[in-house]
């Protein structure tokens, strides 16, 4: 059984104060305080990686039993009141995208133009209609992009701003949901891309024992903790903070980055545990900021992992109860490796983020396994979130021809996620192996009519004509190994004298590459 949650810093003091209320377990209060605090500081703090800056957002869904008090109300009574955190607004029961738009409009009107702010969604996203429930798919999609760091504002605001209305900033979106377990909307495999962006917590009763005893703080200590958080928050509203990490923290984070491998034997259920590293990184950053530092240490990683591990167990209990025992074993193994890992307190630069085992943090912002996921019969399956992320980043614009295939209806435009090296040929299922293409370019690329050079020039295979450069996006780092594999596959069809006068680097034969085991690229985030 995994160890209990490690309460740390001022947020731990606030949680202990909140847990004095009847019906509130200290671990639930602590996790909720993390979601609350992360939403508050999200406009000021970023998690730099080699591909982009990620937000310091921790999203939690607390699944409640009968007559359990609201954690949001409990935190307010413990001192985490939005009136004291002036750039954080709270919005209850946002169940549709239209309600989110209205909430942003109201919140933005309370902020001076140009002011960064954040919105905390509380209550539930589930709407009740008669005896049934429903969840707005458009809201779900918009929240996915918000977790990834895309700020939200009313789409019509930009047009009004051009007409002379005051420009208002987009908002970071935090989530602290509370609902009955039966209302949790993201259950099917098709919803894993949404489900894994949340930490799921099955509410505990205060009578449940913790593995790590926690002393009850004096009220004065909890009050001082709140005052300290308010002071830190006020300071953060005046500056931007790029978080940094120590060598020790990097060492402890390494086994968490490889955590997806521990769940490979679970079949389709393994995809439910794809973003444990991303959640750990975000929680660790939030804990560091609550202690008035921009340095993530090994202690922050350990404390963050204890929260993530508890949530992973609850996720298994809710969504894949048959896998609870192997999930618990896997989490224990990862936790042991995290605690045993050691390193120096020296702060690493971004270029030094080379993790244990010789793997460097690179371009896997969705935190999915880089090897192909297989079903119970060994057949390769795709994680739809990978292709969807790439299409979202490029806003459905073809990276080769630039066309946007527009259609009537709310979807507005469509595109296709094209694997550079097919999964059936040993290709990794991560964003670096996927392009956003229109159906025409997708077909031509898959059948070898087009290929890419090392510097991402698009070349017509039969004529050698260079069509231009592949459209790129900072969050989307194309995998050079995959590009070379694709080019080598069709190299025999390039007519003599038709090679373009642009560098294309060495190309390894597909047969040799396919026989090699796929290496794991470490992911600092997502």
TrEMBL record:
Residues 494-526 are annotated as: Disordered. It holds the Pfam family HNH_2. It comes from the Bacteria. Residues 385-443 form the HNH nuclease domain. Residues 510-519 have a biased composition (Low complexity). This is HNH nuclease domain-containing protein. It comes from Kitasatospora setae (strain ATCC 33774 / DSM 43861 / JCM 3304 / KCC A-0304 / NBRC 14216 / KM-6054) (Streptomyces setae). The lineage of its organism: Bacteria, Bacillati, Actinomycetota, Actinomycetes, Kitasatosporales.
């Amino acid at each position: 059984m995994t160890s209990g949650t490690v309460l740390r810093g001022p947020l731990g003091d606030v949680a202990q104060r909140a847990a004095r209320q009847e019906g509130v377990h200290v671990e639930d209060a602590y996790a909720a305080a993390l979601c609350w605090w992360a939403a508050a500081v999200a406009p000021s703090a970023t998690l730099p990686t080699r591909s982009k800056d990620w937000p310091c957002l921790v999203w939690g869904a607390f699944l409640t039993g009968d007559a359990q008090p609201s954690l949001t109300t409990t935190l307010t009574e413990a001192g985490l009141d939005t009136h004291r955190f002036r750039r954080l607004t709270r919005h209850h029961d946002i169940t549709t995208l239209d309600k989110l738009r209205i909430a942003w409009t109201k919140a933005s009107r309370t902020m001076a133009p140009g002011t960064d702010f954040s919105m905390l969604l509380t209550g539930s996203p589930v709407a009740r209609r008669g005896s049934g429930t429903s969840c707005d798919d458009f809201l779900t999609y918009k929240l996915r992009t918000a977790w990834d760091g895309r700020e939200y504002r009313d789409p019509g605001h930009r047009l009004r701003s051009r007409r002379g209305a005051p420009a208002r900033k987009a908002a970071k979106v935090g989530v602290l949901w509370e609902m009955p377990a039966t209302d949790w909307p993201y259950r099917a495999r098709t919803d894993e891309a949404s489900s894994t962006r949340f930490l799921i917590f099955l509410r505990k009763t205060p009578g449940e024992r913790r593995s790590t005893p926690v002393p009850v703080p004096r009220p004065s200590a909890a009050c001082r903790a709140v005052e300290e958080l308010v002071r830190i928050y006020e300071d953060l509203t005046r500056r931007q903070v790029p978080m940094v990490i120590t060598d020790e923290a990097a060492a402890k984070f390494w086994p968490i980055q490889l955590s997806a491998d521990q769940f490979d034997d679970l079949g389709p259920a393994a995809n439910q545990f794809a973003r444990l590293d991303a959640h750990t990184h975000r929680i660790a950053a939030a804990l560091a900021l609550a202690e008035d530092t921009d340095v993530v240490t090994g202690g922050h990683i350990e404390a963050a992992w204890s929260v993530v591990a508890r949530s992973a167990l609850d996720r298994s209990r809710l969504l894949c109860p048959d896998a609870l025992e192997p999930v618990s074993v896997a989490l224990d193994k990862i936790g042991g490796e995290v605690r045993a890992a050691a390193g120096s307190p020296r702060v690493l630069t971004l270029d030094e983020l080379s993790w244990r085992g010789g793997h460097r943090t690179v371009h896997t912002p969705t935190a999915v396994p880089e090897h192909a996921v297989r079903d119970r019969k060994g057949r390769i399956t795709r994680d739809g979130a990978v292709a969807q992320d790439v299409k979202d980043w490029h806003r459905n614009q073809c990276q080769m021809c630039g066309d946007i295939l527009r259609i009537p209806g709310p979807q507005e435009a469509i595109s296709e996620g094209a694997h550079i090296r097919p999964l059936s040929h040993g290709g990794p299922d991560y964003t670096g192996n996927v392009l956003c293409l229109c159906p025409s370019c997708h077909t031509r690329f898959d059948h070898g009519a087009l290929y890419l050079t090392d510097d991402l020039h698009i070349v017509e295979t039969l004529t050698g004509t260079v069509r231009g450069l592949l459209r790129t996006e900072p969050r989307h780092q194309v995998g050079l190994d995959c590009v070379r594999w694709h080019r080598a596959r069709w190299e025999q069809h390039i007519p003599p004298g038709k090679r373009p006068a642009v560098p294309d680097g060495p190309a390894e034969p597909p047969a040799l590459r396919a026989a090699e085991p796929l290496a794991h690229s470490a992911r600092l985030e997502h």
